[in-house]
Design a protein that fits this description.
29% strand, Chitinase A, domain 3, 18 strands, 330 residues, mainly beta
Amino acid sequence: MRRRSLLIAVPAGLVTLAACGDGESDSAKASSSPSASASAAKPPKIVDGPLPAITDGAKFDEKPTVAKGSGDPSEDLAVKTVIAGTGRTVAEGDYIQANYLGQVWATAKVFDNSYDRKTPLVIQLTPQGIIDGWRYGLAGKKAGSRVEMAVPPTWGYGTEGNASAGIKGTDTLVFVVDVQDTFNAKSSAKGTKVAQDNVDLPKVSTNTDGKAPTIEVPKVDPPTKLVANYIIEGDGAVVGAEDSLLVQYRGVLWDTGKEFDSSYSREALSSFGLQQVVKGWSQGMTGKKVGSRLLIVIPPKLGYGDTPPSGSDIKKDSVMVFTVDILAKM
């Protein structure tokens, strides 16, 4: 039986915390992002138009300007690949990293965009995570693609609309989405392998095939201080102390080498805020680069100490060993 994560307590909707506007907290602004709506009973019919013209910002990852919709929009989901990427194919259930702009068809009023925030959205294409227009419209596209969509209410926010974003229940929404990357349960770190020269530390495999890395724990006394070393060094953004992350990870106990937790065994990526996890994780990942694989050895005082999770294989004062692939900042 698959176990839920022991380390992570993720509030509902964490992956939908996309901001809108300026000067507000993420939680205050989350409601205007393309977060989940009621899922319709069957998939939409996808057509190639009509769609308004992109009049400026035509390059991938450049903030676009989109014309007002002309005439009546389709009652079906209109989707067009404006720029075809060559990266990995997006599948339903994947997490995607993307910049986007959303506006109302009839008025061309922009209700949200990530370009001005200079922070792409990372979100999962599930009924609980995203509006159906995105879930169906982006599936099958490739990373590196710019996709334009006209999303009628059925596949957007429904007849209730989204009052906080100024979206009425009759509004068709136009989105331009630049898909930067896509992640699934087979995703791994990508970067430069770093030498593992310290024989007194566990050795982690550098496979990037989506399978769980091996962890070889040496038969010596564990370190008394936190260890957080690169196994594979990525070239992405530096992780901040209050960031939220999307990761793959595996944890074993130093004294036995026994696995007690793993996203690989659940076949599901994990997302969390660094303020929500044990201190060894938050301190160990802060300052590291996205795209990296880390070895993190956590002494009891930065882990669970003398109060391990009930029912787990972690005992009092256990030293925990993790390999963590930092896939994206959320």
